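Lab notebook, design round three. We kept the backbone fixed and only want residue identities now. Task for the bench partner: fill in a sequence for the structure below.
Input structure tokens:
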């Protein structure tokens, strides 16, 4: 089955540009110019036995304001839980992206974009959408992955493992922020990640021998510990140790209850056990 992509942009010229970037053998791309016609199509797709994998949403639609795209994003977040959303704009500020991210957007693209950056983002979010449980059957509306109760702090080198955590959390109806720490270098992502740490309930720290070599990871860890001092038991930090010697772990981390997943023999079982514990913790914090 082809990946179903919906592109919403009031510019027919942009439709042509985007269409050329997709392989028609792999993708079915549907184009719309307004939120109203997009909603009608989104309501019709399930009747055809189809679910949208990805929505490319221009921030400024026909009236030149954000209201129409925000309304559509809220509709998507409420009705289509597994659909990934990438917002697009030629002029996107950090505050604007934060507004859309908090309403359910997953990433952004700045126009004009290169084919490489465009397809890299598309493929990443298609994979996320297809990994969400109950994709082929079952009540998709029960999945609330946009709530992002868990922040997964990790380096891009550990992205594969972090993604496994994210997918396992999804299976238990738990949303997460799973963006690598290097994105703090991005002026648009930085305030979003900062806010995500301030609003999540659990900070899952993937701690490796390279963690403290990264200034970005240090920033996230400092922010999390400062919040822990402020919020106490209302906020939990869980260090997950991976390929690191005990002598390399700072005392502040080693004094906490850590989960060591270095051994490949039982790594998956340990992660699933941790996810089960996280589910119980979130229920207690609710």
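Proposed sequence:
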């Amino acid at each position: 089955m082809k990946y179903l992509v919906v592109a919403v942009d009031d510019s027919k010229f942009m439709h042509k540009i985007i269409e050329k970037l997709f392989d028609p053998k792999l993708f079915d791309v549907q184009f719309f110019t307004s939120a109203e016609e997009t909603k009608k199509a989104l309501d019709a797709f399930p009747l055809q036995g189809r679910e949208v994998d990805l929505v490319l949403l221009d921030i400024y639609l026909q009236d030149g304001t954000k209201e129409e795209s925000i309304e559509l994003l809220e509709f998507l977040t409420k009705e289509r839980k597994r659909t990934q959303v990438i917002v697009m704009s030629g002029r996107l500020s950090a505050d604007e992206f934060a507004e859309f991210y908090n309403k359910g957007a997953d990433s952004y693209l700045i126009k004009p974009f290169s084919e490489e950056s465009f397809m890299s983002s598309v493929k990443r979010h298609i994979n996320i959408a297809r990994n969400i449980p109950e994709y082929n059957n079952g009540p998709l509306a029960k999945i609330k992955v946009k709530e992002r109760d868990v922040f997964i702090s990790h380096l891009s080198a550990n992205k594969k493992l972090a993604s496994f955590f994210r997918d396992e959390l999804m299976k238990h109806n738990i949303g997460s922020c799973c963006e690598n720490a290097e994105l703090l270098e991005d002026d648009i992502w930085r305030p979003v990640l900062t806010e995500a740490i301030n609003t999540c309930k659990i900070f899952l720290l993937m701690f490796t021998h390279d963690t403290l070599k990264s200034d970005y990871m240090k920033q996230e860890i400092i922010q999390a510990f400062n919040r822990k001092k402020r919020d106490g038991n209302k906020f939990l930090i869980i260090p997950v140790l991976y390929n690191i010697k005990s002598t390399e772990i700072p005392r502040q981390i080693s004094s906490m209850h850590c989960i060591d997943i270095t051994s490949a023999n039982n790594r998956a079982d340990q992660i699933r056990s941790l996810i089960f514990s996280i589910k119980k913790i979130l229920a207690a914090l609710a």
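Keep this in mind before ordering anything: Residues 3-131 form a domain with the Rossmann fold fold (CATH 3.40.50.2300).
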